[in-house]
Design brief:
44% strand; 371 residues; 4-stranded antiparallel sheet; mainly beta; 30 strands
Amino acid sequence: MSVVLATGGFDHKIRFWDAPSGTCTRIIKFPDSQVNKLEITPDKQFIAAAGNPVIRLYEIMSSSSGSSNPSVSHAQQAADNSTMQQQAVLTLEGHTSNVTSIGFQKDGRFLYSASEDGTVKIWDLRNQNYSRSFDCGAAVNSVTLRTDRDELISADSNGCVKVWDLGGNGCLTTLRPSVDWISTDGGAAASGAGTTPAAAPKHRSTRGNYFESTVTMQAVDISEDSRTLVAITNHGVVYVWDPSTGVNLSNDNADSDRTSDICPITKFRAHAPGYYCLHGRIAPDCRHLVTCGSDGLAKLWDTTTWELTETLENSKTWVYDAAFCADSSYLVTSSSDHIARLWNLKTADVVRRYHGHQGTVTCVALNDASV
């Protein structure tokens, strides 16, 4: 299978798509809730779906899951698909509230997750129980894995970005960007095309750092080369660090609240005041960041200059999620108008629309990488 494309939504369904044609090839009913997040294993054998409060893993190539039959009409196939109930091969129970973020280690050895219950968990996938749990002290909206170190990075509703050591040392670093921020540009917003200056700091603290009222951190991501770390507030302010300049705190006997010397680079407002930012992700080639907003826009930012390079308009509906293809030349977005869209990033054009969900399309997963 060269391309796996799937979407999930408020309609409790996971839809698989033939990416070039836009045809829905299969539907899985998610029995528990809306589908919050989807993630495909690196070998394309399984897909993980996060809901409230469980995570379920399904076989992608299951013969009992309503795969398309070319001898059956599209209408009949749709009717058959709508009644399919594929059984999960593994159900992960342990969270007590919405699971907001999931991911796989690059070799598929374990899955990590974050939840509104205030925890980040590690699952080794050999059983239904988590192998490790980190208490973040607040609802966690996003978590990502640093591939060059055994570390997870979480973003929570208390406005914190925390670095967690998988080796057993707990929280290594706590960043509070909306409270303490000094960057190489003096804390000013990036001056890229289409950017709006970030709100001026309200006060200066006694340590000389800028202070702003704490806001929810909605998303966090680190580039595959581990040279760019971003965290985005729910109001669309993006904070950028160079984590390659920081020490490896897992080698130190540091307490859990030690301030990291990860180098702040810049901050800027990605979406206009009055709108929410719902998601952010760095492209596999590490050259662009995409931010998704309630303003109906997915925006692409150059990770060298932090200038706005493209604005993708999604019919003035909320854009919930986005996923890049392996070479970063295409992007799939999911929106509240029940549609997912495939964008050619060279032309900024929509090349395919995926219709079929009966509610907001909350998440998208794409894997077209060579296995």
